């Protein structure tokens, strides 16, 4: 083990770090390399944009008939793609009018930035670590019984959030503008899965629950049993990704206090420098 001396920066010490991230893989790899690690790309998902605007049109038509009391945005890319689709439909003015009359809630900093860029005010914000629990806490004082809540999903339905809103007797109006799919080329991910039992990888890093799910799905397709508790350090950017591991019996060794990639790599380097 490499010892951390005094206040010197921790290091990954040349260890191989497998990254399941796709969209921000270059940024994450640069962080790993800046801490002296070797980044290995094995993307476990891709964002597939919805190509049929019919669902967006139906969502807008319903929202116009039943103006939402609350509109919830969960991701920055979701905000951008939803607004782009609405613009293609020529319905921007209608949508902005609905938002002006509604309580606008966000799950984290990315949708916050996207809404601010669009000039849309924000009324409710989830606290760190920006999970469904914190979002529901932010809405705890809002009366939802009989009210319509419009919900922009992230890559897959947030069943936990929908169930919680409906338990408060809200009418949930859902919209999905993209989905999380496996990469078109799963070769790097498949090779990673084959190499893990041979201890050719020191660390596996996940930044979303979908990455973890796809990792195990592809392993099952390859008939490979993953045992990440033996010789692999497992790092998750936040509690949602961490729970995806623990639900599959995997111990999470590193989870930063703040769910950001920089904090994740720094905490990983500290753990490996001890």
* Main sheet characteristics: 5 strands, parallel
Helix content: 40-55%
Total of DSSP H or I helical runs spanning 4+ residues: 11
Quaternary state reads single chain
SS-based class? alpha/beta
Which strand-content bin applies to the residues?
15-25%
Radius of gyration (CA) equals: 20 Å
CATH topology of the largest domain: Rossmann fold
What does this structure look like?
It is a single chain. The radius of gyration is 20 Å and the shape is elongated. The chain is an alpha/beta fold and 274 residues long. Helix content is 41%, strand content 16%. It has 2 domains: 119 residues, Rossmann fold, CATH 3.40.50; 133 residues, Rossmann fold (3-Layer(aba) Sandwich), CATH 3.40.50. The N terminus is likely disordered. The strands form 3 sheets. It has a 5-stranded parallel β-sheet with strand order 6-5-4-7-8, with helices on both faces. α9 links the parallel β10 and β11. α3 packs parallel to α5 and α9 runs parallel beside α10.
Q: What is this structure's SSE topology?
A:
Layout (H helix, E strand, L loop, with lengths): L15 E4 L5 H10 L3 E4 L4 E4 L4 H12 L4 E4 L2 H13 L3 H10 L1 E4 L2 H9 L6 E2 L6 H7 L9 E5 L6 H9 L3 E5 L2 E4 L5 H9 L7 E4 L2 H13 L11 E4 L2 H8 L14 H13 L1
Parallel strand pairs: 1-2, 1-10, 4-5, 4-7, 5-6, 7-8, 10-11
Antiparallel strand pairs: 3-9
Name some characteristics of this structure.
single chain; 274 residues; Rossmann fold; 2 domains; five-stranded parallel sheet; 41% helix
């Amino acid at each position: 083990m490499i010892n951390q001396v005094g206040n010197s920066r921790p290091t990954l010490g040349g260890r191989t770090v497998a990254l399941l991230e796709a969209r921000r893989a270059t940024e994450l790899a640069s962080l790993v390399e800046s801490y002296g690690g070797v980044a290995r790309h094995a993307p476990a998902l891709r964002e597939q944009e919805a190509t049929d605007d019919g669902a967006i049109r139906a969502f807008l038509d319903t929202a116009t008939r039943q103006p939402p009391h609350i509109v919830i945005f969960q991701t920055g890319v979701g905000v951008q793609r939803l607004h782009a689709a609405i613009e293609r439909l020529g319905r921007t003015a209608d949508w902005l009018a609905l938002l002006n009359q509604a309580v606008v809630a966000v799950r984290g900093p990315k949708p916050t930035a996207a809404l601010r860029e669009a000039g849309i005010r924000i009324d409710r914000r989830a606290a760190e670590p920006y999970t469904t629990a914190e979002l529901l806490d932010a809405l705890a004082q809002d009366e939802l019984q009989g009210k319509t809540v419009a919900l922009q999903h992230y890559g897959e339905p947030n069943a936990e959030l929908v169930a919680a809103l409906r338990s408060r007797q809200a009418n949930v109006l859902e919209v999905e503008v993209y989905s999380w799919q496996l990469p078109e080329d799963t070769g790097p991910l498949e090779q990673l899965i084959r190499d893990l039992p041979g201890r050719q990888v020191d660390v596996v890093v996940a930044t979303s629950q979908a990455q973890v799910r796809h990792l195990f799905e592809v392993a099952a397709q390859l008939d490979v049993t993953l045992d990440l508790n033996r010789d692999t350090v497992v790092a998750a950017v936040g509690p949602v990704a961490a729970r995806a591991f623990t639900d599959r019996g995997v111990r999470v060794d590193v989870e930063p206090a703040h769910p950001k990639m920089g904090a994740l790599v720094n905490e990983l380097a500290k753990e490996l420098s001890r």
